[in-house]
Write a structure and sequence with these properties.
homodimer, alpha+beta, 3-stranded antiparallel β-sheet, 37% strand, globular
Amino acid sequence: MININSEQLSEMEKYYRINLINSLAGYKSLNLLGTIDNDGITNLCIISSVFHLGANPPLIGMVIRPERPHNDTLRNIKSVGQYTLNNVLPEWYMHAHQTSASYPSGVSEFDACGFKKIYADRFKAPFVEKSTVRIGLEMREFIDVELNGTTIVIGEVVRIMTDDSLIEEDGTVNHICAKTMTVAGLDNYCLPQAVGRLAYAKPGVEPHELSMVK
Amino acid sequence: MININSEQLSEMEKYYRINLINSLAGYKSLNLLGTIDNDGITNLCIISSVFHLGANPPLIGMVIRPERPHNDTLRNIKSVGQYTLNNVLPEWYMHAHQTSASYPSGVSEFDACGFKKIYADRFKAPFVEKSTVRIGLEMREFIDVELNGTTIVIGEVVRIMTDDSLIEEDGTVNHICAKTMTVAGLDNYCLPQAVGRLAYAKPGVEPHELSMVK
């Protein structure tokens, strides 16, 4: 067994530790984050720090790294108050990864990386046309994490645009049919396969697969 | 295309909305969260709200729902200051799901659901023996989210115990070899397959697969 303690962690080479810690806790949500500024210039970046915060109100959190000169994303969210999350598919995941390159200010990653925009009624931020699950959010809270200078952005889901037949009868989005990808660490892109849906767990009842009412 | 707005979201049947919002943003990190109280009673629960916060210092965040009478987990983390995250494997994922059942206070889910504990030197919280990637954390910060009463717990990684050969030369944990599972929504368990590792993205350079230095 490999056994690593905090002294060894602090002495690790920088990029080795980045890869290790970033991949440690398993697979991450993978999305393209779409924003727009007040002059209409759009921005698109891949993000893997999205987490579910609660269903009522419908809230999603994400971590944004410290604001830098060309970190347009955080500035756009602050000024416009809206953003979108769009799932990533195997057919074009390389182009989604390419949005992480440092393009000059004023260049939209939608154009530079070959993504067509679509818009929803009464919603400013752009969605990714070739995604199959698209979420429109309104910014609700910024939390500055003093421990490392990151910002946790909390948004409320106000729009959902999915391809037909992707929402099951009980409300669950079928990400297998949606072809949604996931990522481990910085760059390890994966496509999940279904193992099983399990019924609500109760003490004394053996765990078993969910029987879906059709 | 299915098009849902915030009015429709607010009028949805409660469990339909829970399933929809919980599954919306894609696949989630899946772990068993191990804790212990000051009397030595252990607790184990499945958690899917873990997110990467930063590598230096090595920080991981997670969302805990509002404290309830038998929410021993949050109380244990607060009183002992330590906890563990352990990955979930296909061979026993049904037993991992079973830890979400409401067992009476004083019953350890390690015993009730058939998990053997292991311990690390100078670390109180228990690890899951049959996981392949095990993380020991020390609590660093609690953030109360007023929007919905949840708590974001931030911990620093102070121990890592993995099976041999799971950490690649550049530090990345190989979750395909580790057989780590992921979950979409409340109960949709999946096993990812590798698609590709991509090189660091640069403007003007076509996205391409990473050539690993052996």
